[in-house]
Amino acid sequence: MREQLLVALSQYGSPALFAVVAVAAVGVPLPVTLLLIVTGSLVSQGVMSFWLSIALAGAGSVIGDQIGYAIGRYGGSALIERFSRFLGGAGKLHAAEAKARHWGGPGVFLTRWLLSPLGPAVNLVSGTAGYSWARFVFWDVLGEFLGVTIYICLGRSFSDRVIELNALLGDLSWTLLAAAVAVVLGWQLFSYLRTGR
Hints:
Helix 4 crosses helix 7 (119-128). This protein has helices at 2-12, 14-26, 32-44, 50-74, 76-87, 90-113, 119-128, 133-157, 162-196. The chain has one domain (2-196). It has 9 helices and no strands. The termini are far apart. The model has no long low-confidence stretch (mean pLDDT 84). It is mostly helical.
């Protein structure tokens, strides 16, 4: 699939970039980071426009995120019930909603570019939690355009090492996610031990 997406990008350019990042933002697992880095490489070769690529990739990501938010917000009780079963029950869904409310805008912002594997889940949970749509849009646009700009600029700067850069960034993203989980679990354990005494 990775090769097919890269062929589509080289054949159809910006429209393919827009479509792929929008679908990925909804939650379909696609190699968006690689696509953005390759876009940067194509920009450095003069094949694609820098500003148009940023505008279309950012807009596609934001539209996909809005779809995920809307599914969570307006999907109806049947969808939310199914989603809660996927998370492990209604209790876990309520806990995820509480975390979405607690982290709010900064949580949305960070999952757009730094902890991007969590992005689609944060979109849904922000919707089910009833997080303000205006705030969601603000933080979403800010984070998505920052992330798109970072990855396209990296691809433009390191156009001769695209695959290596993608592997490094993928490993870094999962490492940061694991570190964040470790910090949260460590804090919960510390809190539990402190109150248990």
